[in-house]
């Protein structure tokens, strides 16, 4: 038998096959990036009906209401969406120097080592006296004060917006989602801007550049969250 | 005057195409890696709102998507509907049980972000109901999907 010589395989069509695959993937590719505004909904917790409801002063709440006709009412007054950012900034900043510049906006409190000690002692005593199923509630508050303590230890005494200051969003059944997102976007923008300003003031650089995976930066982020808190509650929609 | 190249015809040497497949393969691999195929068939039309503060959603494996928009199928009416995976939900009460079936890799509903992709003209009633449903099962991490402006 004669030994047959293997013929070389023609690789000329390889390019065509690869092209075919390439075009398939080109067509099916969607390079869409998902972006959005992240929020945490408040956790549901069962409160003991005997727990006294904390008193929240009217001045500490900024009510933003979007009605079914997509009109915006802030503290009961009509407002254009363009003016909302300034209003929210005012809410945070108008009394920031510790004086009563606007008595309808939340006051600032000077946080010193003494205040922290006092508040924490009070909470610990309350926790010891509370029934077992309510202890976690106090634990949350103590954690908050521990964060203030870290902040105090790092940057010294500082002033902080009243700790019941919050923004309340109210919607009606037919309020459009688009308007709701616009409002959420503005709230996020104000808080991000203010944290950024604080961050630069303290010499930590841009707020956005702080990396949550780096323990040092993480601590700074937590402190900025103490200095510029973001407290938003959403009322049930009105039918 | 002298003549150059007398009696010689020059020809351009044939271009070797042997490396063409390699180049194509390189491109191919790039697109294969970059491709994310659409996982779901959209049954609702969604025009996302825009936001300046929108942040890119990372780690998509740990995200569930809920779509709320107007049905593309005219038989389904014109009221906004909720789409979970490939199906339209009958109403918002299906959201909670659906979210619980999505728990995986030891991650609970609490750990997995829920991204709401909602048409900007949808009313807040349905959105609010869905959020309340999620809150009931402690799935409190929410992302309002929006395009970056």
Describe the structure.
The complex is a heterodimer of chains A (239) and B (149). The mean pLDDT of chain A is 86. Chain A is elongated, with a radius of gyration of 27 Å. Chain A is built from six helices and eight strands; from the N terminus they run αββββαβααββααβ. In chain A, the strands form two sheets. Chain A has a five-stranded mixed sheet with strand order 4-3-2-7-8, with helices on one face. Chain A has a two-stranded antiparallel sheet with strand order 5-6. Chain A has 239 residues and is an alpha/beta fold. In chain A, 44% of the residues lie in helices and 15% in strands. Chain A has helices at 14-28, 81-93, 113-129, 135-155, 177-201, 215-227; strands at residues 35-40, 61-66, 72-74, 77-79, 108-111, 158-161, 166-171, 232-234. In chain A, α4 (135-155) crosses α6 (215-227). Chain A has two domains: 58-112 and 158-234, no CATH class; 113-156. Chain B is α/β, with parallel strands linked by helices and 149 residues long. Chain B has one domain (44-148). Chain B is 23% helix and 23% strand. In chain B, strands 1, 4, 5, 6, 7 and 8 form a six-stranded mixed sheet that branches. A two-stranded parallel sheet of chain B has the order 2-9. β1 of chain A pairs antiparallel with β8 (141-145) of chain B, so a sheet runs across the interface.
Question: Which key phrases capture this entry?
Answer:
heterodimer; A: 239 residues; alpha/beta; 2 domains; five-stranded mixed sheet; two-stranded antiparallel ribbon; 8 strands; B: 149 residues; six-stranded mixed sheet; two-stranded parallel ribbon; 23% helix
Alpha-carbon Rg of chain B, integer: 27 Å
For the biggest sheet of chain A, the summary is: 5 strands, mixed
Along the chain, the helix and strand elements of chain A come as: HEEEEHEHHEEHHE
- Cα Rg of chain A: 27 Å
User: Which structural class best describes the helix and strand composition of chain A?
Assistant: alpha/beta
Largest interface: A-B, 48 and 51 residues
Spatial shape of chain A: elongated
Number of helices of chain B: 3
**What sequence of helices (H) and strands (E) makes up the elements of chain B?**
HEEEEEEHEHEE
Strand content of chain B: 15-25%
Number of helices of chain A: 6
User: Which stretches of chain B are poorly predicted, pLDDT < 50 over at least 5 residues?
Assistant: none
């Amino acid at each position: 038998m004669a030994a047959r010589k293997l013929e070389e395989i023609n690789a000329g069509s390889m390019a065509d096959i690869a092209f075919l695959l390439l075009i398939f993937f080109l067509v099916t590719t969607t390079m869409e990036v998902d972006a959005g505004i992240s929020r945490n909904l408040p956790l549901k917790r069962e409160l003991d009906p005997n727990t006294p409801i904390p008193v929240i002063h009217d001045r500490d709440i900024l009510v933003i209401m979007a009605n079914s006709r997509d009109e915006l009412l802030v503290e009961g007054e009509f407002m254009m969406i363009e003016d909302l950012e300034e209003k929210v900034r005012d809410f945070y900043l108008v009394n920031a120097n510790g004086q009563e510049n606007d008595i309808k906006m939340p006051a600032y409190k000077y946080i010193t080592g003494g205040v922290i000690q006092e508040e924490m002692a009070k909470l610990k005593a309350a926790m010891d006296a509370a029934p077992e199923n309510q202890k976690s509630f106090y634990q949350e508050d103590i954690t908050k004060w521990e964060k203030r303590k870290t902040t105090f230890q790092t940057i010294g005494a500082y002033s902080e917006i009243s700790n019941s200051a919050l923004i309340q969003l109210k919607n009606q059944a037919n309020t459009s989602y688009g308007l709701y997102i616009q409002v959420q976007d503005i709230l996020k923008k104000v808080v991000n801007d203010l944290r950024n300003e604080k961050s630069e003031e303290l010499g930590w650089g841009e707020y956005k550049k702080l990396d949550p995976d780096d323990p040092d930066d993480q601590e700074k982020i937590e402190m900025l969250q103490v200095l510029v808190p973001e407290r938003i509650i959403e009322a049930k929609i009105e039918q | 005057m002298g003549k150059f190249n007398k009696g010689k015809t020059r020809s351009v040497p044939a271009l070797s195409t042997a490396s063409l497949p390699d180049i194509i393969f390189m491109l191919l691999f790039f697109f294969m890696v970059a491709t994310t195929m659409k996982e779901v068939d959209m049954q609702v039309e969604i025009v996302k709102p825009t936001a300046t503060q929108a942040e890119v959603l990372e780690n998509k494996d740990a995200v569930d998507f809920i779509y709320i928009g107007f049905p593309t199928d005219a038989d389904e009416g014109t009221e906004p509907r909720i789409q979970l995976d490939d199906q339209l939900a009958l109403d918002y009460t299906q959201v909670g049980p659906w979210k619980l079936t999505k728990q995986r890799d030891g991650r609970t509903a609490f750990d997995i972000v829920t991204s709401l992709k909602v048409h900007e003209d949808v009313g807040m009633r349905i959105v609010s109901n869905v959020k309340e449903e999620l809150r009931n099962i402690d799935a409190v991490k929410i992302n309002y999907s929006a395009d970056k402006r």
